[in-house]
Amino acid sequence: MEEAFAKLDIRKPENIVYKRTDLLVDRPLSYCPGCGHGVANRILMETIEEMGIQDKTIGISPVGCSVLAYDFMNIDMLGAAHGRAPALATAIKRLWPDHFVFTYQGDGDLAAIGTAETIHACNRGENITIIFINNAIYGMTGGQMAPTTLEGMRTATCPYGRDVKIMGNPLKITELISQLPGTYFVTRQSVHTPVNARRAKKAIRMAMENQKLNKGVSFVEIVSNCNSGWKMTPNQANKWMEENMFPFYPLGDLKVDGKLVEKK
Amino acid sequence: MGELRLMKGNEAVAEAAIRAGCDGYFGYPITPQSEILEYLMMAKPYETTGMVVLQAESEVASINMLYGGGGTGKMVMTSSSSPGISLMQEGITYMAGAELPALLVNVVRGGPGLGTIQPSQADYFQAVKGGGHGDYKLIVLAPASVQEMCDFVKLGFDLAFKYRNPAMILSDGAIGQMMEKVNLFDPIPRRTNEELISQCPWAATGKKKERDHIIITSLDLDPAGQEKVNLKLQAKYKQMEENEVRFEEIQCDDAEYLFVAFGLSARICQKSIELAREKGIKIGLFRPITLYPFPTKQIAALAKKVKGMLVVEMNAGQMIEDVRLSAGNQIKIEHYGRFGGIIPTPDEVVRALEQKIIGG
Fold first, then answer.
1. Kind plus residue range of the DSSP H or E element containing B214
2. What ipTM was predicted for this assembly?
3. In what order do the strands lie in the sheet with A183-190?
4. Are residues B171 and B251 in the same domain?
5. Quick check: B206 and A89 CB within 8 A?
6. Cβ–Cβ below 8 Å for A81 and B69
7. How confident is the model over A170-225, as pLDDT tens digits?
8. pLDDT tens for residues B6-44?
9. Could you tell me which CATH number the domain at A32-260 has?
10. Contact B65/A91, CB-based, under 8 Å?
């Protein structure tokens, strides 16, 4: 069979219609099979490649499942302490105003331990892009309750389901930051189907392009599954996400060009 | 050359930062050092040298702004006082682990806890022995005058970049607030991005075609790799110990006894020397300027010449541990301290010398 392909000589550069972006380092990702991080990493790197800004981009990875994102993304990156990525991004963007700066953070990182850094970077209107992966759980540490864990959802630290009377309410941080005058573009996407992944990539493109306008934070939430943490197969996890996560965290733009989007 | 001005210690730090070519200051108000941020906001260096000045939402944010700026090779600094420096410890150990240059200024106040806003030297252990987690060291400079508050900003940046390590100026509320004559050094232009990229090839400045992407991190999950990181750090600290020890000796030549003191305590001891010598006591002062690396060899040599040492500190006895480790147990070494924001008088220091060392 391989011989046949070689003879057909179809593997010429001009015949390639799709390939892995050069901005993803050629090494296995550390994410669980079925997890949304892989696609999110890829579409972010594809965007930077398509914009031709690899040499002018500085990324910041968080603590959490994507702590090693700097190993996969072929750009200059800093690994922040837990929750502090927006503080790093603030300084870097102000010190390198002609560079593109993004943070890539999970829900525990961005909406629990780093809430103050998130809110204040957004409120100051730092000219940065924040990519926020929300899977409603602490994946890397073994599936504990996150600030975004849904009411009734079971995790290792709410094994009987999140009881909001005891554990407090899930935090809609994206709605919260969309209210801040320093945010220019706020959207919520997913990457669990090809259509959704394309929409998410478009949103990331806009979020990166916005940095040229110097008008404030562009914030892209990606609602993602955590099949390992949720104890489901990837297909079950995606279905569960559609049925339970999307009603509470509805997809779509919250703020475009600095204006809140009217709810239908 | 230079320029003479009457300034507060805190103002001297701020002016020196602008003149040293600092790229960014990130800080949060706390007494007794808020004049540093106030001075910078008044001076507006972002309109002249291009230096960024930002009031952060917390000390936690400030230190992580330094991590970001330092990781891209920029000359960045912050300042705070004791409780704020405690909050920064996480960021400090990350920066030490990732080998990032930055300058920190601690204008120390009395503790523990919220303590007092009056001067103290009780953060010696925190500055010199760690403060954050893991095996790491800061370069620690202890100014004893407003002039040194100014000069150590430049020296601190030089050492921080020479060793790719955070450096700290360990001052106190009195030196921060008091006014003295300062000879300001001539302004040094900020580095251009091109100069930075050639001088700091390790910094994350955007991936270039001719090199691999740069990763700034303190993480290495492989124990063998993490041990290597530690060994590299320890080798670097050894280099600092060999090359960067700084100290001052005052009237040590004929001394039978010694005060050992840093910062403000050393200033007080200078007066105590006058008073003691009037009484016929031959005493001198040994002042460590670098608290890390500590002048161990110099103290060991002096311990062979004198009969006793009184370590004077505005704390309950911190540097004395390093003095004793350096000097061994051949001579009498005692501590005299006031704390909680009390500054000892020259008289009471002489009385302590007579009671604890000479008479004791």
1. none
2. 0.96
3. A259-260, A252-256, A183-190, A217-223, A129-134, A100-106, A57-61, A76-79, B215-216
4. no
5. no
6. no
7. 999 999 999 999 999 999 999 999 999 999 999 999 999 999 999 999 999 999 99
8. 999 999 999 999 999 999 999 999 999 999 999 999 999
9. 3.40.50.970
10. yes
